[in-house]
Design brief:
The protein is of the alpha+beta class. It has 21 helices and 24 strands. Helix 2 packs across helix 3, helix 7 packs parallel to helix 21 and helix 9 packs across helix 20.
């Protein structure tokens, strides 16, 4: 039977300096809690326990599960070939340089047309490379042709001149004979290929349009890693595609793909990276798309595990009972707290305003002075509050990594009363995040009510997926960039009501039951109590589950089905006694590879107790596998009986003291394939902008 949440608190480790932070304008921590977003019930009646989560980033491992069901591991890291010594210039190149003489007559004519400053710029291009662009425009085509001829004559075809769309001239140093360059490039590619690790060559296959590879990263956001890879290759960030984002604070392994990029170029990047390793390359005909995974395997270390003071049970016995319950009964498949943002105004409240077509209120909520915001944005918010007509001043103060806020201000700067236009300036994945968050809020709240009223009984009128479309339900809408919506999209799946006869036959269990997130293309439960829950909850905001089409196409929500309960796979756990608070409990994929190379014996992933100096602290290492739309925070919540109210991609809390050097407070985290929230998007944008 379901139980209501106990008033327990988790203890957490102090956040490390590299973690993103939020600020409260009044000095207190203010934000949403689980009941605010419909997360209320528990399944098990076991006792809970407290612990320290993500004290080190090596306390949290995520390995992607591929579409074939394989847990992705780093299998082989390429051996780096020694760098080639610099090649001296050939005699021919030296002769060409000696032959080069400027035609002073032609250069004099150029001076008369373009000016002395331009000629100095041209000589610098010849000497050092680079480029030079004129400020003067030339609308006459014949005159432009004459200038092109003079440039070639004056500088012996060593300067290439091009006309820009604005009819200015841009000059660059000519790279030489094109056929010679192609031969030189071909030789370089052959040399790079010959220098490749033989294991890489044996496994990469024949050249195809896309290169697939594994990204191993430590303490780094998935999109951050993709941006860095693209930046080093001088490609657009979207060139690197992944099946789903992984946590920043952790050690994660996932597949990625990139178009028209040879393996040797990717291999060469490893020497430039610090916290990223690329491996296991293979050419494929198709790119990796969002949702091309079965889920994730998590390996989570919970440190300093303790029981409430009043509990007289043995701590390891309580842990075993809690994890046996998880293995047997699973957990409520709630959308986790990371779904609802990190600011004082949760994302679903913005979504409500958008669905109500109250665009001005939505924009002003995003720009408002809030107790919990990115610290650097406070001055801009206060400026806007003082003088909402002075958009330019607020825009100058708003950090560029505050993506949504900057987008709105830019839109208002162009048209101060076009509130919808300003909202539509926000990147699409962020815009739809708001309305999807409202769907998640409704789903959570309805499911909590259902479990509170009816427990885990299967009801006549409950919904199950149609047998003919169950297989298709694993797919996702490829056009939807909002990564968390990798669930049972109504475009691919239908549901039907359970009959009284099927209940008598015991045909279904609660694990078969699905509930829809509100939309125009889903069926609602035939059970009147469940249907009325949707109607009543949405009526509070003047919305209806039967009117989910919107004049803005992106805000027309088709809805989707989601299983009420989730059953994690391959649940295992280990208890370890230790003394050093920084003792590593689990080996990374790279640790295992290195150990195997040295000893030929592959060590276990979890350290044995004999490898850890025994102390009076207890750690629990939990392994479990979850589907791509399931939250590990919700599994841990069920096990530990803790609230997981979120404060960014770190543990940030309402502090109420310290003990043994640990902060004591309300634990939060992020544990699944989830797109960056508004704060995380801002933090990532800031870092990428700084790197550029």
């Amino acid at each position: 039977m379901a139980t209501s949440p106990p008033s327990k608190r988790a203890r957490i480790a102090a956040s490390e300096p590299d973690q993103p932070t939020t600020s409260t304008t009044d000095g207190s921590t203010v934000g949403i809690t689980e009941p605010d977003v419909g997360i209320i019930q528990y399944l098990g009646s076991h006792a809970g326990f407290s612990g320290v989560l993500k004290q080190r980033y090596t306390d949290f491992f995520v390995n992607e599960i591929t579409p074939s069901g394989e847990v992705l591991r780093v299998k082989h890291v390429p051996v780096q070939a020694p760098p080639r010594p610099p090649q001296p210039k050939t005699v021919q190149h030296k002769k060409e340089e000696e032959k080069f003489v400027i035609d002073e007559v032609a250069e004099g004519e150029i001076t008369g047309i373009l000016g002395e400053e331009c000629v100095l710029g041209l000589r610098e291009v010849v000497k050092s490379g680079g480029s030079y662009e004129t400020t003067k425009t030339f609308d006459d085509k014949d005159e432009r042709g004459r200038i092109h001829q003079l440039i070639r004559a004056a500088y012996n075809s060593k300067v290439e001149s091009k006309t820009t769309p604005e009819y200015t001239f841009k000059f660059t140093k000519f790279a030489g004979n094109h056929s010679s360059n192609r031969r030189r490039d071909h030789r370089s590619k052959n040399q790079a290929l010959a220098a490749l690790d033989p294991v890489v060559v044996d496994n990469m296959g024949d050249r195809e349009a896309f290169t697939h590879f594994t990204i191993f990263k430590e303490n780094k956001e998935s999109m951050d890693a993709c941006h860095i890879i693209a930046k080093f290759l001088r490609l657009k960030p979207k060139s690197v595609t992944i099946a789903g984002t992984k946590d920043r604070r952790g050690v994660t392994v996932q597949r990625a793909s990139i178009a028209h990029t040879p393996v040797e170029r990717l291999v060469s990047l490893n020497k430039a990276f610090r916290d990223i390793v690329l491996s296991d390359f293979r050419y494929e005909k198709e790119r990796i798309k969002l949702g091309d995974l079965c889920g994730n395997e998590f390996l989570i270390t919970i440190r300093d595990v303790q029981l409430p003071t009043a509990c007289e049970k043995n701590v390891e016995a309580v842990v075993n009972e809690a994890l046996m319950s998880l293995r047997k009964t699973g957990f409520i498949n709630y959308f986790g707290m990371q779904r609802f943002g990190t600011h004082s105004v949760p994302t679903h409240e913005i979504g409500i305003k958008l669905l109500q077509k109250r665009y001005q209120e939505a924009a002003q909520l995003l720009l408002s002075v809030q107790p919990l915001v990115v610290p650097e944005s406070v001055a801009a918010r206060e400026q806007y509050a003082r003088d909402p007509d002075d958009i330019s001043s607020a825009l100058k103060l708003m950090p560029r990594y505050c993506t949504a806020e900057v987008s709105i201000l830019r839109g208002l700067e162009r048209s101060s009363q076009d509130w919808l236009g300003a909202i539509m300036q926000i990147p699409r994945n962020l815009r739809i995040m708001y309305v999807h968050a409202y769907q998640s809020f409704v789903w959570n709240t309805v499911v909590s009510e259902r479990i509170a009223k009816f427990g885990l009984a299967v009801l006549e009128g409950d919904l199950v997926l149609d047998d003919d479309t169950k297989k298709a339900s694993a797919q996702e809408d490829a056009d939807d960039e909002f990564e968390e919506d990798v669930m049972d999209s109504s475009e691919f799946v239908t549901a039907r009501s359970i009959t009284a006869e099927e209940i008598q036959e015991g045909k279904f269990t609660i694990f078969d039951v699905v509930m829809p997130s509100p939309g125009f293309d889903v069926q609602y439960p035939a059970h009147l109590d469940l249907r009325s829950s949707y109607e009543r909850i949405m009526a509070i905001e003047g919305l209806s589950p039967y009117k989910m089409r919107h004049n803005v196409k992106e805000f027309s929500l088709s809805g989707a089905y989601r299983h009420v309960l989730a059953m994690p796979g391959n649940v295992e756990w280990w208890c370890r006694r230790y003394s050093d608070p920084l003792q590593q409990m689990v080996r990374t994929d790279l640790d295992i590879l290195r150990a195997r190379e040295q000893t030929v014996i592959e060590p276990g992933r979890v350290l044995d107790q004999e490898e850890i100096p025994v102390g009076d602290r207890l750690a629990v290492i939990l392994k479990l596998q979850l589907g791509s739309s399931q939250y590990a925070t919700m599994a841990l919540r069920e096990v530990m009986k803790l609230e997981t109210s979120r404060r960014g991609d770190m543990f940030d809390v309402k502090l109420f003291g310290t003990r043994d050097g640990q902060l004591v407070g309300h634990a939060t985290s992020t544990f699944m394939d989830e797109p960056a929230s508004d704060l995380e998007q801002n933090e990532l944008s800031r870092k990428v902008a700084g790197a550029a």
